[in-house]
Specification:
131 residues; mainly alpha; 0% strand; rod-shaped
């Protein structure tokens, strides 16, 4: 699936595939967390100074911040909608799940082993027909 560290048990769930940060490695996730922390600090500083900003101002400031840190901007974000990306991820997940479900689990193998070790039941005695 290409997901990293989504769950401690390693099982990928359908909800996990539509969360973009689940595709990040641990190092990439650390970088993202630091960028978010710095940006929130900047936002709090703007609020303390009572600087009015529109959503477009925030987008511009974020782009500027990413540029000065040497991070690339996503230039293709407007080409694929969230709905299209989510539908594609869910389609891939459905294939992954079908393959995963086709593989016998350890409990299935144990069950099969236990069934083959059971003694065969004795045949029932036949009753004589009464006239």
């Amino acid at each position: 699936m290409g997901l990293f560290g989504t769950r401690p048990d390693g099982i990928v769930r359908k909800d996990d595939v539509s969360v973009a940060k689940n595709y990040l490695t641990s190092d990439e996730l650390q970088v993202l967390n630091r960028i978010v922390t710095i940006y929130i600090e900047f936002a709090e500083l703007q609020a303390l100074e009572r600087k009015e900003m529109t959503m477009m101002d925030w987008v511009t400031k974020l782009d500027d911040f990413l540029k000065i840190t040497g991070r690339p901007l996503l230039g293709h974000a407007e080409h694929v909608s969230h709905e299209t990306a989510k539908a594609k991820a869910e389609l891939v997940y459905a294939r992954y799940r079908a393959l995963r479900d086709a593989v016998p689990r350890a409990v299935d193998a144990s069950f099969e082993s236990a069934v083959t070790q059971l003694p065969k039941p004795a045949p029932k005695p036949r009753r004589k027909k009464q006239l």
